[in-house]
Amino acid sequence: MNPLFRIEELKALIEKYTYEYYQLDSPSVSDEQFDKLMRELVELERQYPEYATPDSPTKKVGGALSEKFKKVVHSSQMLSLGNVFSADELRDFDKKIRKEVPHYSYVAELKIDGLSVSLKYENHHLVLGATRGDGTVGEDITNNVRVIRSVPFSIPTVEAIEVRGEIYMSKASFEQANEERTLQGEEPFKNPRNAASGSIRQLDSSLVKKRNLDVFVYYLMNKDLANTQKDALHLLQQYGFHTNPETRYCKDIEEVIDFISEMETRRKKLPYEIDGIVIKVNEFSLYEDIGFTSKYPKWAVAYKFPAEEVETVIEDIVFQIGRTGVVKPVANLKSVEISGSIVSRATLHNEDFCKDKDIRIKDHVIVRKAGEIIPEVVRVVQERRDGSQFPFEMIHYCPKCHSVLERRDGEADYYCLNPLCEAKHQEGLIHFASRDAYNIEGLGERIVTDLYNDDLIDTISDIFRLHEHRLALLEREGFGEKSVNNLLNAIDESKKNNLDKLLFGLGIRHVGAKTAKVLAQRFQCMEQLKKATEDELLLVEDIGEIIAKSVTRYFESEQNQKLIQELANFGCNMSWIGGATSTDAVFYAKTFVLTGTLPTYSREDATKLIEERGGKVSSSVSKKTDYILAGEQAGSKLTKGQELGITILSEEEFNRLMNGEK
User: Residue 623 burial (CB < 10 Å; 0-12/13-18/19+)?
Assistant: First the structure.
């Protein structure tokens, strides 16, 4: 298979599954299958760096945000963790640590299957509780956090701190909640993780209180209060937080591996669900030297337990179509319980996957998952065949528009190429309104689907015509005057979005969120971008031949040109707002590296200031680095910069330079 096509397929799948996990609380693949896809994408991007785009899921943290809660910008990014699946991979992780620092120890913590949360205290009192969200922006769930008994209202011994932890639902609370839901005729929760996530996103805090949620705190942001993770956990316990009593201090990686073996045998007896072990370097002073990737800290990793396997039956195979036209076979399974979750579907990927495994309707199959809902098919139980099975057959016509499907050379997938296919239109509308794209509050997937099915919207332009259908909206079930007004106001408000949001929302092939921002900053307005030639696009940093061809082809289409003109007529912003990119910008074409803790700026604040003034922030020091912005406890990056003769700036010197002073 052509590596580019596989990379694009993986990116689309991972984005879809991330949305399901974080936004819908209803993932359609197991954790293990998701991790497998992510690892494949990482490896392909390593082999073919020319195909690695800035918007790749490998560069992202977390997922989408709920539309129900106020957005909160985190004081520092809530990073996710890299995963390992074996003792050998843990030893490889340890070797990488040893290359950076000679002496260190570990703290091993249970990986709770719940929802990440940040808790902030000021003047001794809890002032903010926020979800991880996409890692940079989360949801304000303060009112709901206040009703969790293990979260202190106040901390008399310290004035201001921020801690991070995991909201979870115990097995006992999960069973009780499902008993109540069953008695009330409601669908039971599928597993404790989804129950916790769904509960904390309730708008009524009294309902949250009834769910008996709990929190384990595992991270202290104020590094001036402790020198090690072990000490920090002890301090958090003194402050009144719940810390996990199963946490283990380990002198080396072999002790970590022994602890993992112990917990694998004990995990089912725990009163809550865990899906692995988190391993962290104990000494905070070493974190800077060990470093970070754009997505993960290098000083920590998550070991994931092997997936549980069960046997069930494939009752039918159906086909689903995505926004790009890709058609996927999906197995409808005889419902089966795995680790407390009821599963009934599994994605079968493509024709080759089904034929390689000789998957048939009515087959008994072994499926597995790693703590989530929808499993993957591991293998067929051949000895259970009795002649009643039906061989898999790939369809050759789109299940929605009935157009002939095409399988391109070098690809495993079939595509519907009909530009008027309803399924593709619907998925495109959902994407346009989504948070990462045009971010229209109240216009989520369910609402878009309903409006599309009722012929109220058919194209992106129709979203901005919904004002003409106000009476029809008011007549819809669940739509009161307030909700309709909120939706229409949100549509009007979205017209102020920056140009990059529009470019990403349009769904130009190969143009993700970060690539859209690069294009918007470089060309400043839609008109200039429309006129750009392929050669001009290739001059833009991070824009390769594939993206350049895709962009020019998009704007060559009369249908696309008409859409853009309609959006402009509706008043949608067509220009890049803010962000200096001209050659007179104070940091134009300058590369910065940040190290240490600055007196007043967070790293995110400093990065934003640099980028707004035309500069770029890099994670590593090289001869191409122009400045190193250094704070307290600066590590090896400062040393390397001094060796290379790079200009070192304090925050005060940075401010003077930013203001044009010498």
Answer: exposed
If one counts every other C-beta atom within 10 angstroms of the C-beta of residue 244, the result is 18
| Sequence letter at residue 216 | F
Say which CATH superfamily domain 71-304 falls into: DNA ligase/mRNA capping enzyme (3.30.470.30)
Q: Give one word for 409, left, alpha or beta, with left for phi > 0 and alpha for psi -120 to 50.
A: beta
Side by side, the strands of the sheet bearing 647-649 are: 616-618, 591-595, 627-630, 647-649
DSSP assignment of 66-133, as one string? Answer: -SSS-EEE-SS------EE-SHHHHHHHHHHHHHH-SS--EEEEEEESSEEEEEEEETTEEEEEEE-T
- Report the run of H or E that residue 138 belongs to, with start and end: strand 137-139
Q: What is the pLDDT confidence band of residue 98, given thresholds at 50, 70 and 90?
A: very high
Q: Which residues are known catalytic residues?
A: 111
**Stretch among 169-173, 600-604, 627-631 having the lowest mean pLDDT:** 600-604
Tokens in use for 5? Answer: 């096509």
Considering the entire predicted model, what is its pTM? Answer: 0.50
Taking each helix axis from N to C terminus, what angle separates 171-183 and 192-200, rounded to the nearest 10 degrees?
Answer: 70
Q: What pLDDT score does 63 carry?
A: 45
Q: In which band, very low, low, confident or very high, does the pLDDT at 194 lie, cut at 50, 70 and 90?
A: confident
In the chain, domain spans: 3-60+307-415, 71-304, 419-494, 499-569, 591-658
CATH superfamily of 591-658: BRCT domain (3.40.50.10190)
Can you spell out the DSSP letters for 581-595?
Answer: -STTSTTTT-EEEEE
As a dihedral over the C-alpha atoms of residue 354, residue 358, residue 361, residue 365, rounded to 10 degrees, the angle is -100
**Nearest CA-CA partner of 536 in 546, 517, 523:** 523
Residue 317 has pLDDT above 90, yes or no: yes
Q: Are 402 and 327 in contact (CB under 8 A)?
A: no
634 vs 655: CA distance, rounded Å: 18
CATH class held by domain 419-494: mainly alpha
Which is nearest to 90 in space by CA: 244, 260, 290?
Answer: 260
| Alpha-carbon gap, residue 97 to 169, rounded angstroms | 34
User: Which pLDDT belongs to residue 31?
Assistant: 60
CATH assignment of 499-569? Answer: 1.10.150.20
DSSP-assigned letter for residue 207: H
